[in-house]
Amino acid sequence: MKLARAALESVYEVLHRTYGAQAWWPADSTFEVMVGAILTQRTSWHNVELALANLRAGGLLDPGALQGAASGVLLRAVRPAGFYRQKAARLTAVSAWLQDRGGIGGVATLSDAALREELLAINGIGPETADVISLYAFRRPCFVIDTYTRRLFARIGMIDGSEPYEVLRELLESTLLGTAASYGEYHALIVAHGKERCRVEPRCESCALGPRCGYRRALLGTSE
Q: For the purposes of burial, counting CB atoms within 10 Å of the CB of 140, is it exposed (0-12), middle (13-18) or buried (19 or more)?
């Protein structure tokens, strides 16, 4: 399976003209990015913001403080994000890993491959969360494959949509040959488009990518 770099870059340009620079990930620290990446699993960003506000108010947006927090305190703080027992356990595990690794500075010395391998070894950290942390917290060049990414590229006919995570990630990275900054901006634009237009129930009218979208043509019965 192959993708055309020019086609991917064209999609990026359309999204950038439509939504402007996104400057993701919204956070005040590297650790907050990591916490947000875990909290956002299977929930909305609004709920994540509520949980982050609780953690901030409790002084828990620090790996040492979070790891040492009483179980009940941490559970109450992350409850708005849903699946709060699982997420509290994952946050504690990530905090312990950071402490063992000498903090953010120690982790930052790891190679791209070693960082991803160690993240994936933490219980509850899958490929998407590992790549979000690698990309947005540690600025490593990796393309995040989330629901928005898969849905968009499938609907405009660039992929089938059923490809395994690693296949799509490697395909996009090997085609784009980008940087952490460019991958992060592209992913953020895809998320913006997914929230605004390319939803589960899409809002295809006036979509900037409409002229190249087979899904839109089939849905609206147009021939463009």
A: buried
Please state, in angstroms and rounded to a whole number, the distance separating the CA atoms of residues 188 and 102: 30
Which candidate, 151, 153, 130, places its Cα nearest to that of 142?
A: 130
DSSP 60: -
Distance between start and end Cα atoms, the chain: 26
Rounded to 5 degrees, φ, ψ at 202 are -70, 155
- Give SS3 for 68: coil
| 144 close to 135: Cβ distance less than 8 angstroms | yes
The string over 32-71, giving b where at least 16 C-beta atoms fall within 10 Å of a residue's C-beta and e elsewhere, is: bbbbbbbbbbebeeebbbbbbebbeeeebbbbeebbebee
Q: Return the pLDDT at 222.
A: 56
Residue with structure tokens 């979070």? 66
Cβ neighbors of 10 (< 8 A, separation 6 or more) are none
Instruction: List per-block mean pLDDT (blocks of 10 residues) for the chain, which spans 224 residues.
Output: 93 98 94 98 96 98 96 98 98 98 97 98 97 98 97 96 96 97 98 96 93 86 57
